Amino acid sequence: MNESPIIIGAGPAGIRAAQTLVEHGIRPIILDEGMKWGGQIYRQQPTNFKRTSQQRYGFDAGHADALSKVFVDLLDQVDYRPQSLVWNIEQNRLDVLQHGKSTVLSWQSLIVTTGATDRMLPFPGWTLPGIFGMGATQIALKYQACSIGERVILAGTGPLLYLVAYQYVKAGANVLAVLDTAHFSSQIKALPGLLNQPKQLVRGLYYVGWLIAHGIKIRRGIRLMRAEGQDNVQSLVIKNEHGEVETLDCDAVGVGYALRSETQIADMLGCEFKFDPMQRAYLPLKDLAGRSSLEGVYLSGDGAGIMGADAAEISGERSALALLADRGVCDADAAPMRRRVKDLEDRLQKISRFREGLETAFPCPNDWIDQLTDDTIVCRCEEITFGQIRDTITECDIREVNRLKAMSRAGMGRCQGRMCAQSSAEILAHLSGQPLGEVGRLRGQPPLKPVPAQVLADAWSPKTERSTTERSI
Amino acid sequence: MNKLNDPRQANQPQFRRLQETDRPTIDFFIDGQPCQALLGDTVLTAILTNQRAVRHTEFSGQKRAGFCLMGACQDCWIHLESGERLRACSSMIESGMRIVTALGEGPAT
């Protein structure tokens, strides 16, 4: 092995992958967009904050501290590059922007751990100031010790809904209501699957029980109809569990429908994708070991399908072991290695059954399109409305998402469809009468996130500096 | 009245501080007005603890306040008076920073 393996992402998957490589004498390069390691789930607060881990992570405090310590102990054995954005990939070239300067790295082995963002479904008024994603709602507290507003409603579905509500109330925020689009009966039906991770199940039940005991209103089986307000959200109009319309006053809404994988780097690498009906998304193909369709590219953590933070750690280690075996660093047939691999894969399969249970408990609503009005913005960046998308689909007889993007500009803005690709695809499938898997997936384009024009110019000038990577073995 | 610090509603803070309030203060400017933040605030937190929005959209001029807080949605890019652009959720506030959130008052570029 003459080039250091590169790990993209320093969340739970990236940390365990790095640890495993270091244990086998390899010094990986770790590229992470964050200011500090931990990813979104174990995001660290600024250094001058004083809250304890217990205050920030609750039941996960011990685990968060232990994982962070793993990384601290690795720091002098890895080439860690925080605040580094991989903004372009061409074959074996990565363009990486750090502190305003772009460098080129070449790679032979890559472990991609890009994580997830909220799965967002648009509704009328969702672009109003005061409305944030559920992940954002949690980050405001975990990272900045703030509540997103004075009078907060939390809405959508998924386990994060109850966790964030619990954390907010505990920290002294004023949570007016928790609105779950899923029905209580779905949660009962999901119990057999959820019993695969009894500890997680008990925690979930604890949060709900705690919220009820503290007088927080939990409503299930609701639908978000619209947010109202001139310059900021002032009320949320819902269809309640009895099908009646209700207006709830608020000045902030945290909303999310579980998570979606961040797959743009796998896409730019050229990994093969397959439609996953349960996650309603195209995901990069990988085997249980984390091998993608491309030689030398490994995928772990939520970026390759939502499995949660514990699974991310396991799959990070599993990918690193696959990399080591493929490059002949360790013997995949040796008994201790085989035992370890089997243990990791067994745990991943168990979590995947729990994951199916979560999908049953918190199904993503499939009637959300009915709530849209012609002037509902679907693409936040380019301000493309549902009416414009519908008319484009009809007038241009569109059947595929990249055509829809080209003709309507939905998904063509700065976020590259992170916030609207899912909903645009669902709208197209709905209106063209095709199954979701048939409308395709958006192609990624460089730069993956906005970079200064000078960086683009420099990156492709003949004098581009190519940083040499260390020889590690 | 295109300014975000419209006295009727928009000059209310959006974010509410719950903890960590004994940090040193940082003086900075929003649309020329002196404001205060706390050391360790992101630019987004610094703005949203003073008012409800961080920018106007380029097309309709709608107000926005960021959305994902994790560098994914790109909905919180703001200008400094110097012309530099920052993604507010992933930049830290600095003393003396001069932030522009008002419509049409950014630097001519």
3D architecture notes:
The complex is a heterodimer of chains A (473) and B (109). Chain A is an alpha/beta fold. Chain A is globular and about 65 Å long. In chain A, 36% of the residues lie in helices and 20% in strands. Mean pLDDT of chain A is 94; it is low at 468-473. The N and C termini of chain A lie close together (6 Å). With 109 residues, chain B is mainly beta. Chain B has a domain at 33-100. Chain B has one helix at 43-48; strands at 16-17, 25-30, 33-38, 55-56, 63-64, 77-80, 85-87, 98-100. In chain B, strands 3-2-8-6-7 form a five-stranded mixed beta sheet. The chains are: A alpha/beta (473), B mainly beta (109). At the A-B interface, β9, α4 and β10 of A face β1 and β5 of B. β10 (146-147) of chain A pairs antiparallel with β1 of chain B, so a sheet runs across the interface.
Provide keyphrases for this structure.
heterodimer, A: 473 residues, alpha/beta, FAD/NAD(P)-binding domain, Arc Repressor Mutant, subunit A, 3 domains, five-stranded parallel β-sheet, 15 helices, 23 strands, B: 109 residues, mainly beta, five-stranded mixed β-sheet, two-stranded antiparallel ribbon, disordered C terminus
Main interface pair? A-B, 53 and 43 residues
Question: Into which percent range does the helicity of residues of chain A fall?
Answer: 25-40%
Biggest sheet statistics of chain A: 5 strands, parallel
DSSP E strands of chain B, number: 8
Provide the gyration radius of chain B in Å: 13 Å
Q: Overall pLDDT of chain B, averaged?
A: 89
Q: Compute the number of structural domains of chain A.
A: 3
Strand content of chain A: 15-25%
The largest β sheet of chain B comes out as:
5 strands, mixed
Structural class of chain A: alpha/beta
CATH top-level class of the largest domain in chain A: Alpha Beta
Identify the overall geometry of chain B: globular
SS field, number of helical segments of chain B: 1
User: Fraction of residues of chain B in helices?
Assistant: under 10%
Structural class of chain B: mainly beta
Q: Distance between the terminal alpha carbons of chain B, to the nearest Å?
A: 23 Å
CA-CA gap between termini of chain A:
6 Å
The name CATH uses for the topology of the largest domain in chain A is: FAD/NAD(P)-binding domain
